[in-house]
Specification:
- By secondary structure, the protein is an alpha+beta fold.
- It is 34% helix and 26% strand.
- It contains ten helices and 19 strands.
- Strands 1, 2, 3, 6, 7, 8, 15, 16 and 17 form a nine-stranded mixed beta sheet that branches. Strands 4-5-19-18 form a four-stranded antiparallel beta sheet, with no helix packed on it.
- The longest helix is centred in the C-terminal third of the chain and has 24 residues.
C-alpha cells in the first residue's frame, strides 16, 4: 500500500514530531508518575483527557468504565480508524511510580508499559491536527482501562460494546520498540483453583484430605502436561497459597493458573487437559483420606479469558505496517502477544499492536526503564500507518 511519504502534509507532520520529541518524552515521564493500577486509572485518565483537548481533539469525554475518547476528523458514515493505548500499569497502589533520570535513561514502574504508548497517542493526534493531513476516515483516539492482568481487556471490550462504533482498523500503541508488529492475538485463560476440606489439627486430625497436598498434586500434574511447541502453548502455575498456622491442616488451599496459546483450538484442548488434571488431583487426595472423613471439594473459577485470533499478513493494515517499518530502515518482525488488539481481532476487525519507539527493559518490574534512542521513529511509524489506512 503506498504510504504517501511525499505528501506535503505528511512531511509536515513528521517534522512536527521531530521538533516536539522532547515534549513527548516529558509527557511520558509526567504520565508515568501518575499512579494507574488496574481499576484505579482515574487520575491518569483525567490528565490524558486534558492533553487530548490541548492538542485539539474534539468531543473528548470519559465513558462509563473510564476510557478516554477524542476524535480527529469529521465523524461521517465512514468507519473509523481507532488508535488506542492502555492507561493502566501492572503495579499496585503500594508501588512508588516516581520517575528518575540516569543519563539518557528514564526509570520508573510503567515508564514504557504504557506511559510510552500514551505519550505516542497524544503526539500522533497532535501531529495529525497541526499538519492538517487530509484523511478520508475519522480517527478515534482512545486511552483504555483494564488492559493489564485482572483487567482482562475491560476498556477495549467496552469500547467495542458501545453502540455506533464502527472500526475500519485498530492500532494499539503498547510500550517501546520499532520492529515488532503484533498481528496474532495470544489467547489466554486464567483460573483461581481452590481445594476445600474439613481441616484440623496437624497431629490430631492427620489423615483428613489435605487441600495443600491436593494443590501440590495438581501442580505436579500440570507441570507434566505435554505442550505443543507449534503452535506455542503454555501452562503456568503463577501463584499459590492457603492455610492459617504451622500446626493446622488448612481448610482451603489455592493456586492461580495462566494458560496461553497462539491457537484458539490448542488453548481449548489445553483447558480440557488442565480440568482433568485438577480433578484427578482432588480424587487422588480423597482416595487417601481416613475413613469417615469428609472429602475435598474443587472450585475452579475463571478470572480472565482473553480471546485469540489473527489479522492476516495479506491485509492492507499489515502491509502498511511492514512497509512503514522498512521505510524507517528496520526489519519488521511479525509477532504474537496479548494486547488490546486481541478484542478487535477476535471480532474480525483488522488490528495490530505497535511499539512506540525507543528502547526499554524490565517490563512489569519496579526497575522498568526507557531510553529514547530513535524514539521519534516509533511515532513516525504510527503516523505513517494511520495515514496509510486512513486514506491520505
Amino acid at each position: 500500500m503506498p504510504l504517501g511519504l511525499s505528501h506535503p502534509s505528511l512531511q509536515a507532520a513528521i517534522r512536527h514530531l521531530e521538533r516536539t520529541d522532547a515534549a513527548t518524552l516529558a509527557r511520558q515521564a509526567e504520565l508515568s508518575a501518575l499512579p494507574a493500577p488496574t481499576g484505579l486509572e482515574g487520575r491518569r485518565a483525567a490528565r490524558v483527557a486534558e492533553l487530548f483537548r490541548e492538542v485539539g481533539l474534539r468531543d473528548v469525554f470519559l465513558d462509563e468504565v473510564g476510557n478516554v475518547h477524542g476524535w480527529h476528523g469529521r465523524q461521517s458514515g465512514e468507519a473509523a480508524i481507532v488508535v488506542a493505548a492502555h492507561l493502566d500499569t501492572a503495579f499496585g497502589s503500594d508501588v512508588d511510580v516516581r520517575v528518575t533520570r540516569r543519563g539518557d535513561r528514564l526509570e520508573g514502574p510503567g515508564i514504557s508499559d504504557n506511559a510510552r504508548g500514551l505519550a505516542a497517542l497524544v503526539a500522533v493526534a497532535e501531529a495529525l491536527r497541526v499538519a492538517g493531513i487530509p484523511l478520508q476516515r475519522p480517527v478515534l483516539f482512545a486511552a483504555t482501562v483494564g488492559e493489564e492482568g485482572a483487567g482482562d481487556l475491560k476498556g477495549m471490550r467496552h469500547l467495542f460494546a458501545r453502540d455506533g462504533l464502527r472500526a475500519h482498523a485498530v492500532i494499539a500503541l503498547d510500550g517501546a520498540g520499532l520492529e515488532r508488529i503484533v498481528h496474532r492475538a495470544l489467547g489466554s485463560r486464567r483460573y483461581r483453583v481452590t481445594y476445600r476440606g474439613p481441616g484440623g489439627h496437624s497431629w490430631a486430625a492427620f489423615g483428613v484430605a489435605n487441600p495443600a497436598t491436593a494443590v501440590g498434586r495438581a501442580a505436579q500434574r500440570l507441570a507434566e502436561l505435554p505442550l505443543p511447541a507449534e503452535p506455542r502453548t503454555t501452562c503456568a502455575v503463577v501463584r499459590l497459597g492457603g492455610g492459617t498456622a504451622l500446626n493446622c491442616i488448612p481448610q482451603e488451599a489455592w493456586l492461580d493458573l495462566d494458560l496461553r496459546s497462539e491457537d484458539p483450538g490448542a488453548l481449548s484442548r489445553l483447558d480440557a487437559a488442565v480440568q482433568t488434571a485438577l480433578t484427578r488431583a482432588r480424587d487422588e487426595e480423597n482416595a487417601r483420606r481416613a475413613p469417615g472423613t469428609a472429602p475435598l471439594t474443587l472450585d475452579c473459577r475463571i478470572v480472565g479469558d482473553r480471546p485469540g485470533g489473527e489479522t492476516s499478513v495479506d491485509h492492507p493494515l499489515i502491509k502498511a505496517a511492514v512497509a512503514a517499518t522498512r521505510a524507517l530502515g528496520k526489519v519488521p518482525e511479525l509477532a504474537a502477544a496479548s494486547t488490546d488488539a486481541n478484542v478487535p481481532i477476535a471480532r474480525r476487525i483488522p488490528a495490530i499492536a505497535l511499539g512506540a519507539g525507543g528502547r526499554a527493559g524490565d517490563a512489569h518490574l519496579p526497575s522498568e526503564w526507557y531510553e529514547n534512542e530513535e524514539g521519534v521513529l516509533g511515532l513516525v511509524r504510527a503516523l505513517m500507518v494511520v495515514a496509510a489506512v486512513g486514506g491520505v
